[in-house]
Amino acid sequence: MSTLDNIEVDITVELGATVMPIHHLLRMGRGAVIELEQTENDPLSIYANHTLIARGEVNVEDGQLRVLVTEKVYKHG
């Protein structure tokens, strides 16, 4: 068995973000809408273990939701 088979990576795709007071969040009910700072044309942020690694876009093909990587983000340092 390869050593790489045992490495876990948590992948997160962020559609957008916003800041709101906790009391607004607690008052939200089913079907509530949260407005994000991004628009539908802005790229998604893709994180591996909480580190930004790429940007992408949403694609729907044959009823399947996909995330297409459009840009790799390189860490400078």
Name the features.
1 helix, about 40% strand, four-stranded antiparallel β-sheet, extended, Surface presentation of antigens (SPOA), mainly beta, about 80 residues
What can you tell me about this protein's structure?
The chain has one helix at 22-27; strands spanning 11-14, 44-48, 51-61, 64-72. It is mainly beta. The protein has a single domain, classed as Surface presentation of antigens (SPOA), CATH 2.30.330.10. The model has no long low-confidence stretch (mean pLDDT 91).
CATH third-level topology: Surface presentation of antigens (SPOA)
Distance between the termini: 34 Å
Which structural class is indicated by helix and strand composition? mainly beta
Percent helix among the residues?
under 10%
Q: What's the multimeric state?
A: single chain
**Radius of gyration, taken over Cα atoms and rounded to an integer in Å:** 16 Å
- β-strand percent reads 35-45%
Q: Give the name of the CATH superfamily.
A: SpoA-like
Number of domains: 1
For the largest beta-sheet, the strand count, sense and barrel status come to: 4 strands, antiparallel
Widest beta sheet: strand line-up: 1-2-3-4
Overall pLDDT level: 91
Please write the CATH class name: Mainly Beta
Order of helices and strands: EHEEE
Using DSSP, what is the number of strands?
4
Protein name: Flagellar motor switch protein FliN
Membrane topology: Peripheral membrane protein
Subcellular location: Cell membrane
Keywords: Cell membrane, Cell projection, Chemotaxis, Cilium, Flagellar rotation, Flagellum, Membrane
